[in-house]
Design goal:
Layout: H1 3-16, E1 23-26, H2 36-63, H3 70-99, E2 102-105, H4 106-119
Antiparallel strand pairs: 1-2
Helix pairs in contact: 2-3, 3-4
Organism: Lynx pardinus
Main location: membrane
Domain G-protein coupled receptors family 1 profile: 53-122
Length: 122
């Protein structure tokens, strides 16, 4: 093929491949469908541990007046960031593990991506 033919081919391909995504099918861990309930146990335990531990850190920093210094406030903000990031991703993953493959709509995917991007520190 000549360069001229490749340009014509790319134009033809780009015009014929316009699609509209309505949902994504999230399947979990491919090949381990029988073990996904067992995989979900450590994830749910770690999620619960992260939320409780970071919640305690935030409660202690907010509750004690002596800890209202920049270092402790920064620690509380990191704890809040960790809770938000865990809460954005882990419940959807556990839902897939417990109920099997489920479609995720495009707006829901964009919302999840937005909150993941906003909660990751630079």
């Amino acid at each position: 093929m000549h360069l001229k033919d490749l340009g014509h081919l790319s134009t033809r391909i780009s015009n014929s491949t316009s699609t509209h995504l309505t949902a994504f099918l999230l399947t979990g861990v491919p090949g381990l469908e029988d073990f996904q309930i067992w995989i979900s146990i450590p994830f749910s335990f770690m999620y619960l541990l992260a939320v409780i531990g970071n919640g305690l850190v935030m409660a202690v920093v907010v509750g004690d007046r002596n800890l209202h210094e920049p270092m402790y406030l920064f620690l509380a903000m990191l704890a809040l960031n960790d809770v938000l990031l865990c809460t954005v991703t882990v419940p959807q993953m556990l839902l897939i593990f417990w109920q099997g493959p489920s479609p995720l709509t495009f707006p829901a995917c964009l919302t999840q991506m937005f909150f993941c991007s906003c909660s990751v520190p630079l």
